[in-house]
Amino acid sequence: MGFLLNLLTRLPLPALYGVGAVLYVLAFHIVRWRRLVAARNIASAFPELTKEEHATILRQSYKNLCDVMVEAIWAWGAEAGALKSRVTIENPELIQRHAQAGRSVLLLTAHFCNWEWLLLAAGAHLGVPIDAVYKPSRQQSVDTFLRGARARFGGNPIPYKDFIVEMMKRRSEARAYAMVADQTPIRKDEKHWTHFLHQDTAFYVGAEKIARILKAPVLFVEMHRVRRGHYTVRLSEIAEPPYQRGVETLIVERYARALEAEVRQSPPDWLWVHRKWKYGKPVYA
C-alpha cells in the first residue's frame, strides 16, 4: 500500500482530481459510505435549513472530502514552492513572534478544508519546528510512508500515545505543537461538554492540559477554501498564559466556539462522516 501511495504522488493534480471524481461516485452513490451518519449529523446541526439545503451540503461535503484525499496524495510528493503557492498564511507573524521570543505555541485546528496540507504548508512557510499529534495507521508500510511524507518540510508527526513524553523532552525549546482537536473522546475518557451546533457535544480536554503544562499561548488555525486546490489560513489567539486555576476548560470552550463559527461559515468543508455525536451527555455531567 505504501508503494502504491508513493506511485500516486507522481501524478499531476488534475489527473488525481479525476481519481477523486471516481471515488466520489463510489463513496456517495454506490457504496453510500457513512452517508446515513453524515446526513443525520448535518440535519441535527442545521435544523433551521430545508431538506434540500441539507442534501446540497451532504453532496458537496463528499466532493470536498474526495478532493482533500487526492490533494493530500499530491502534496506528499510536491515541492515546497508548489504547496506554498496553493496555501497562503495570512498572518504568520503571530507564530514567528512567539518563536523569536523563545515561547512555544499550541496550534488547534480541525478536520476542515484540507487539514493534511496544514502541517506541510506551515513547515514550508514558517521555518518553525512543528510537532503534530497523529494516530498511526495499523498497516506499518502506510504509517512509515505517511510519517515520512508529512515530515518533508520540517514537520514532526508524533503518535498520540507518545506525545506527552516527546513534548516533555522538548519542553525547554521554542516549538509549535499542533493538534486536530475535533475528534470525539471515547466514552470513558475525560471530556468537556458544551452546546455545539444545536446539541450537547463532547470535546477532548488534552489541549487544555498541554497548554497549561507548556504555559503556551493557544492559536486557532482557521482554513478557508478560495477555490479548488487553493486555500487561505488565518491564525487567531484564543488563550494566553498565565492561566487561572479553577478555570479548567477555558481553552476547550473557546476552541469549540471558534470551530462552530468556522463550520457555520462553510458547512460542506467539515468532515461530517465522523461520528461526532455517537453518545449522549449523561444526566450527571
Q: What this model shows, in words?
A:
This protein has a domain at 82-269. 45% of the residues lie in helices and 19% in strands. It is built from 11 helices and 9 strands. It has helices spanning 2-8, 13-30, 35-45, 51-75, 80-84, 93-100, 115-126, 140-150, 163-169, 206-214, 250-265, and strands at residues 87-89, 105-109, 130-134, 155-159, 176-180, 191-196, 199-204, 218-227, 230-239. A 7-stranded mixed β-sheet has the order 1-9-8-2-5-3-4, with helices on both faces. Strands 6-7 form a two-stranded antiparallel sheet. Strand 8 and strand 9 (230-239) form a beta hairpin. The longest helix has 25 residues, at 51-75. The radius of gyration is 19 Å and the shape is globular. It starts with a helix and ends in a 20-residue tail after the last helix.
Quick structural overview:
With 285 residues, this protein is an alpha/beta fold. The chain has helices at residues 2-8, 13-30, 35-45, 51-75, 80-84, 93-100, 115-126, 140-150, 163-169, 206-214, 250-265; strands at residues 87-89, 105-109, 130-134, 155-159, 176-180, 191-196, 199-204, 218-227, 230-239. The longest helix is centred in the N-terminal third of the chain and has 25 residues, at 51-75.
